[in-house]
Amino acid sequence: MPELPDVERARRLLDARCVGRKITWVQAADDHIVFGGRSSGDIERHLRGCAVVGSGRRGKQFWLALAGGRALLLHFGMTGEIHVRGEATSHYRKIEAAVGDEWPPRYTKLELRFGEDLAVAYTDPRRLGRIHAIDGDAADSPQVAKLGFDPVLDPPTPADFAQAVTRRRTPIKALLLNQAFSAGVGNWIADEVLFQSGIHPEHVAAALSRDQTDTLLAQLKHVCTVAVDVNAESERFPRDWLFHYRWAKGKRATPLLPDGRQIAFVTVGGRTSAYVPNVQALLGAAAAETGDAEVDDAKPGDAGASDADAPPRRKRRRR
After folding, report:
1. Are residues 165 and 305 in the same domain?
2. Source organism's superkingdom (predicted)?
3. Active site residue 171
């Protein structure tokens, strides 16, 4: 599933290719699910002839700002992807359903052309992504406004983060996956942050010490920033990251880190969590007594908890 670094990679790709260009041709698929009930003709009329003046991202939502106060807001869901004709796709890691090499690609939901030399397509084999044609600033749309802090754009202060975390009795892994709390954090990022912090995924958020919340916030910013800095190219992630070894669940051999420490798995917040028992011990008092329902991206557009559960957000940085 695309997470914050993958989405930022896609935003950068669109920003580099599309900003300053005019959309001269549009074709939208007849898909009321992906387009939120709007017709293909309505989407095409909204976008055709518009100049792209900027781009933005918050969490896993990203957008193109259009002249005239309009915007194209995109969300990948499970298998959404951006393609530029004749170039690499927006994802460094291949999604589970190949779309082929033809143009437009298979499963194209929206194709934009900018004159004769530039064509961009959004594909989504599983139809869990969302495309919104918006009047106004995408940053103020309901899909974006309900999100929590972005670990790269506007992380909270350590004090605000500690206060927001320790008033919750949900498992910390589930809280990190809650998009109303930390926008853009998905399954592998949450597992990596908890591993680097030495915190078990089932540890009750309210039972974390101030030292633990400070470490957790620092690692959350570090992991997301490093992944963004290398443009989501996973082969360039540090070799000591759990990321490189966490995908072995279900294989015959016991998954291990290079130094021999075992990787284990547990279900938290409805998601499989990889952790290293030797590093991430769970003491009895820290075990969750209740499990709040949290959301990653199973239902794109849902944020999970209310905004009251999130740390205060700083002023948005727009691009």
Report:
1. yes
2. Eukaryota
3. no
